[in-house]
Write the structure tokens for this entry.
Amino acid sequence: MYGTAHRRHPRRGRAAAATLLAALLLAALPAPSAHAATTPANPGFESGTTGWSTYSPTGQTAASFTEPGGHTGATRLSHWSASAYRVETYQYLTGLTDGTYTLSARVRSSGGQNAAYIALRNCGTAEQRTDLPATANGAWIRVVTSVRVTGGGCTISLNSDAGAGQWANFDDITFTPGTTGLAVKGGDLSTLPKNEAYGARYRDASGATGDAMSILGAAGMNYVRLKVWVNPADGYNDKAHVLAMAKRAKALGMKTLIDFHYSDRWADPGHQTKPAAWAGHGYEQLKRDVHDHTYDVLNALKAQGTTADMVQIGNETNAGMLWPEGSTANWPQLAGLLTAGANAAKSVSSGTRVALHLAEGGDNGGTRWWFDNAVAQRVPFDVVALSYYGYWHGPLSALQTNLDDTAARYGKPVLVAETAYAHTLANGDGLENNIATASQLAPGYPATPAGQAANLRDVMNVVEAVPNGRGLGVVYWEPSWTAVRGSGWDPQDPASGNAWENQALFGYDTTLLPAARWFSHR
């Protein structure tokens, strides 16, 4: 991603005040009435609120009610009141075998509440919760949360602490054995060496100065994505820098995702320019180039003890790579180039996962078309990787539809390999930012530190909810690319600026922003 053309935290509270409020509410709750069942009664609310109990510390139990308009059935549970309200709808299960269970629910929400979430509590272990996303388009989203049950009982809890007129809908409640979670909670730190060379400074949430990778790692980031250019004009993002960054990542206990662009500069849906050294090469030579370049970088990583954990063969290859020979107008040739890279990766390490990457997070039709062709051409891959930026790729419901269908259709784990969101609309340097006006923002997510955090949280929740554990994880794009004179976007122009600094995870005062705490999501 990039170009001038387009460009549970522990687990899962919001602010400290909301956490304190939840604790006070739980202390005030009456003892739950047990249902002698291991599965929830009336999970679709087709029998009104039969089987469910309601509690409100402010006496507003009427704020929880059923009404027409369910996700799959005729009826849904709603939380709403004409005045500010706090309400919980809950059900206590008994007779459970000790072990891990997952709560799933279809939800919709106005957004803006003090708190709105599903939770599992009274389960013998710490309460687990997942916040509801804002769904401005009215679409239902499936969210999940997991808990370890000890003692045979557990409460399913649906909660709202909301202002006048704010609402939440719930439907299709399930409670099943098993657990969820994200294996990849990563960040693309490709530009960090250049930023550091030009004097960038970073501070953790407490204000202590430190190394950006270490600060992000301490916040819970466990994967570092690094792009590779063949012979970049500014000397960054080359093999040597990737090797050095991989050493830093491994020293901090992080895994690596190596992102091959097969170019000397940005490769994205609108740009797939051959490296200058390969410019005159035809298809057969390009296959050898892809194989040899991929093998060379990955074998060097292996030799220094930092074998790549995952590799991307191409970056945002919606229309192919290494144009024109590798265009999607000629799928057999594109498949040959992709296969050459994948085979090189596996020859270095059979344990390295191969990902194919599109900028199609919200486009199920486009994703199907591309991967159906890749499968038909027998391109080997282990992971489907997608970019998703809510201001470009549509609502979360479109992302969920695409991830769910893609994981099921190809039987592969899915990864959001790029995502980000603005924490401000102010400009930190002289170059206009990619996201610069309120009209560009995703509905329900203001350009504030809290809005940025909510957006990352909700993207992670959608990935975690992919059925059968196939939601692999999320990578935040360039969280450390702050505005530093000299560290611009164009490798051929030292004076170019940064159009991304308002989407970094460090604020303009160099301090780590609240969104980074979601890397510690379990």
